[in-house]
Every structure is written in C-alpha cells, then in structure tokens.
Amino acid sequence: xxxxxxxxxxISEKEYKDNHKIFTIFTENHGVMEVICYGVRSYKSRFNxxxxxxxxxxxxxxxKKGIFFIDDFRIIEDYRLLDYALLWEIIYFFKFxxxxxxxxxxxxxxxxxxxxxxxxxxxxxxxxxxxxISTSFILKTLVYLKxxxxxxxxxxxxxxxxxxxxxxDAEIYCTDCKRYDFIKISDKDYSNFYKLIYLKFxxxxxxxxxxxxxxxxxxxxxxxxxxxxxxRPAKNPFST
Length: 240
Ligand SMILES: [Zn+2]
Hints:
The protein is α+β, with helices and mostly antiparallel strands. It has 2 domains: about 5-80, CATH 2.40.50.140; about 85-230. Helices cover about 30% and strands about 25% of the residues. It has helices at about 85-100, 105-120, 125-145, 185-200, 215-225, and strands at about 5-15, 20-25, 30-35, 55-60, 70-80, 165, 170-175, 185. The strands form 2 sheets. Strands 3-2-1-4-5 form a 5-stranded antiparallel sheet. Bound molecules: zinc ion. Zinc ion binds near residues 154 and 173.
C-alpha cells in the first residue's frame, strides 16, 4: 500500500514546518487519515488550491519515514464558495467524522456516500436545515455502526411498546423494564428520533427547534463521550 488513489474530503488542516500542511482527510475506503501536503503554503504551488471543504481525488505516496503525502490531485468539488454561515457549520460538523472507526471498508464507504448525499442536499440550504440533517447523519451513522440502538422495541425485553424511557446507559426501555431514574421520551421526541434515523434526508421535514437536543446530547455523551455541541459552533460569527 505504498501508492494510493482515493476520493476524500479534506476535513481539517494544520501548518507543518516552513511551507507545508498536514491535512486530515475523510476517505471513501481508508477511514480518516493524516497526510502531508508539501509546499502548499507557497503561492506558486499548484497544491495551494487544496484546503478544508474540498472534495478531491488524490494520489498519495509514502515519504522516507513511511508517511503519506499528496503527490497529485483532481478537485471533484470546492465547497468553499458556499454561504459563510453554512461553511462554519460544516467545518464543526466534520469533527464528528474524526470520532468514527470502521471495522470494514463497506462501513466506511456507506458513511462516505451518506456524507456526500448530505452535503449535496444541504449546500444551498440554511444553517437550521443543516443542523437537522447533520443530526440525522450523526444518528444514522451511530445506528449503522451499532453504537446506538433504536427501534420500536425495548432494548431489554425486545417487546414492542408505546412508551419509552432513556436509561442512564442511553438505551431505550419499555415501561416494564425501566427503573426509577429513567427519562421519559415523549411521543413527539420518539417520532422525531424515528424520522431522523430511518427517513431519507430529503424526506425529513422536522424543524430544528423541534429536536430534543438534550436527549441527543445525553446519548452522544454516553456512547461516544462527545457532546452534540462539540460538532457545532457555539456562536456562528457569520450568522445574524
Ligand atoms: Zn422491556
């Protein structure tokens, strides 16, 4: 695996030595990687077209230390021209991708394709729409990777129920299985969770302020030790 050609999103970057950068890329079939881009900070470099929010096909080679660097590239899409407020949301959302670990290439490409769909759907929408769809992306991904469990059955007894409670382990329980300190999931919240997880992005018609982020935050903190607020800007400097 000394040469690779991969489709990826550049999700973050940092300066490296005099003239270079290290890009973190989310790839279609090699998970999240850090790669060096030599000379990219020089205005003469052809690589200076690359940066965060670029979707690109890149050729990677290994340097003498065995670290991958970008040898060639072709830009697939440049999202940096979108509305600033939306870009800011996307850049924060990208932090979620760094949390993910895939066991198979199939899992990786499933999530990658879902990301492509999400960004293409959201690219001309507003930030509230993006928050709904990116929350859906997060929940769908965690269910797909079997990190969270969500269905119309109790996680304990597997019986169907009309009343659910969130346990301190972030699993859902029916009335019979719950213990005293469980949080009741309202019908509205349950229905919204269900839509966010199981509907196609384009069919989700929930308003951002209808989503119970308190419950989602509790689930993320328990299951991946992150808060939903780690993946969105506290105050978007570009929104009015
Ligand atoms: Zn039960």
